[in-house]
Design a protein that fits this description.
- It is built from 16 helices and 13 strands.
- The chain is of the alpha/beta class.
- The chain folds into four domains: 98 residues, Rossmann fold (3-Layer(aba) Sandwich); 57 residues; 182 residues, P-loop containing nucleotide triphosphate hydrolases (Rossmann fold, 3-Layer(aba) Sandwich), CATH 3.40.50.300; 64 residues, Ribosomal Protein S8, Chain: A, domain 1 (2-Layer Sandwich).
- The strands form three sheets. A six-stranded mixed sheet has the order 6-7-5-8-9-10, sandwiched between helices. Strands 2-1-3-4 form a four-stranded parallel sheet, sandwiched between helices. Strands 11-13-12 form a three-stranded antiparallel sheet, with helices on one face.
- Helix 4 runs antiparallel to helix 5.
- The longest helix has 25 residues.
Length: 430
């Protein structure tokens, strides 16, 4: 037996408990599931489970040698403490959110992401530390040098450090300005089809790995697909009506993720804050109430990242799985929260061109024209324009080159400056 052995525990008020997702998440965090205990009943305010089930959990931990109990749900600090006290000595008790923090911690690679995960973990642990201190009668004061004091002091330090780090959204904007790319972000819950959309729109990608069977809907799909293969984003180049775009697939939201936990991966969502357009992908095959709730939470999360509502393009994917009446219901529900939701089937290509048009309409544009002496420098600039802008026309007449193009306003100014420099250099030579 090793310290990675764990028992999965799940309680629901009614129905049949499904442990497929929590097992996959546990595996993603490096745990080996050696048993599970489920219960169908109302929540016990003291220990989450009923007394008999808590006794069963403790017995299973002894039998299997499991050192961790993972509860698929949210435990209050008091429930965490009481459950831990009821287990064999040395047994850890983690709820769903603590498990997610473990996965975050494993995947965080940038300095900012590492600090954000540490901060989220401390904010999670602090009330549980207070609960344990209360139990031991140490809650009268927080003394310097105590675990509580150290945790609170570290939280203050982490918040200051994060405030001092460069804003990745601003860095992304600056990079975009310099390179001449528009930025489009794909956001939404896992399993909605975000990766499939990236493959559909990306210049160097295709859908050969995404079949009409919707593998991303499989409850036993790899946890990395369901929950944060990485805390970093995936970016690919796409071309929309000749316009070069950087298309970024952000970390997927996950069901029942509280807002305080969202902060631990807010760096990845900062890409949305810097974007010209955010494609918010939702799974139309979800039940109507669930779809409505996921859209509401998604919009709240994007609001927290200062993403303008007018930059959001809502997409309801997987309409091929629905009858016409069901599609109308989902669209009506989405329209309660968003503007003009677009019904799509990414794998079948339904309304993909309409999405391209909507994205293109969200990009800041200026039609510009420059004229310069024909020569090597002019040809290099024309080639550069084809790479960075949507070229409308290039006319060669009377020893000059006139290029008409559509691009970002800031980039149009750069092109005019380059053309003026070529013209000035030509006059000096003559």
């Amino acid at each position: 037996m090793t310290d990675t052995n764990t028992i999965i525990a799940k309680r629901i008020a009614s129905g049949t408990p499904d442990t497929g997702e929590i097992r996959a998440l546990a595996a993603a965090a490096g745990y080996t599931v050696v048993g599970e205990v489920t219960q169908v009943r109302s929540e016990d305010s003291t220990t989450h489970f009923g007394a008999g089930k808590v006794t069963e959990l403790a017995a299973r931990a002894c039998e299997t040698g499991a050192k961790t109990i993972i509860v698929d749900g949210e435990l209050t600090p008091s429930q965490s403490h009481q459950l831990r006290e009821s287990m064999p000595e040395g047994t850890r008790v983690h709820d769903r959110y603590r498990l997610i923090l473990d996965i975050f911690g494993d995947q965080a690679s940038t300095r900012r992401a590492q600090l954000q995960v540490e901060l989220a973990r401390l904010r999670y642990e602090l009330p549980r530390m207070r609960e344990a201190a209360d139990e031991g009668g140490l809650n009268k004061r927080v003394e310097k040098g105590s675990p509580l004091y150290d945790a609170e002091d570290r939280i203050d330090t982490l918040e200051r450090k994060l405030d001092e780090l460069p804003d990745p959204a601003e860095e992304s904007r600056e990079r975009r300005r310099t390179q001449g790319f528009d930025l489009v972000t794909i956001a939404g819950y896992t399993n909605a089809g975000k990766s499939a959309l990236l493959h559909r729109l990306g210049d160097d990608l295709d859908l050969t790995d995404t079949t009409p069977d919707h593998p991303d809907r499989d409850a036993t799909a790899a946890a990395e697909d369901r929950l944060f293969e990485t805390l970093e984003t995936t970016t690919r180049r796409a071309t929309l009506d000749g316009r070069p775009v950087l298309l970024t697939d952000t970390v997927g939201f996950v069901a029942d993720l509280p807002h305080w936990l969202v902060k631990s991966f807010s760096e990845t969502l900062s890409e949305a804050a810097a974007a010209d357009a955010v494609v918010l992908v939702a799974d139309a095959s979800d039940p109507t109430d669930e779809l409505r709730e996921k859209l509401r939470v998604s919009l709240d999360v994007l609001d927290a990242q200062n993403v303008p509502r007018e930059s959001i393009i809502p997409v309801l994917n997987k309409i091929d799985l629905l009858e016409e009446e069901e599609r109308d219901q989902r669209l009506a529900a989405a329209a309660e929260l968003t503007s003009s939701p677009l019904a799509m089937s990414i794998v079948e290509g339904t309304n993909v061109e309409e999405l391209r048009t909507r994205i293109r309409d969200h990009l800041p544009s200026e039609r510009a024209e420059v004229t310069m002496p024909n020569g090597d420098e002019a040809m290099r600039l024309v080639s550069w324009l084809y790479d960075r802008t949507s070229v409308v026309d290039v006319d060669y007449a009377g020893g000059t080159v006139t290029a008409t193009f559509v691009t970002r306003p800031a980039l149009a100014e750069q092109v005019r400056a380059k053309a003026d420099a070529i013209d000035a250099e030509s006059e000096e030579e003559t």
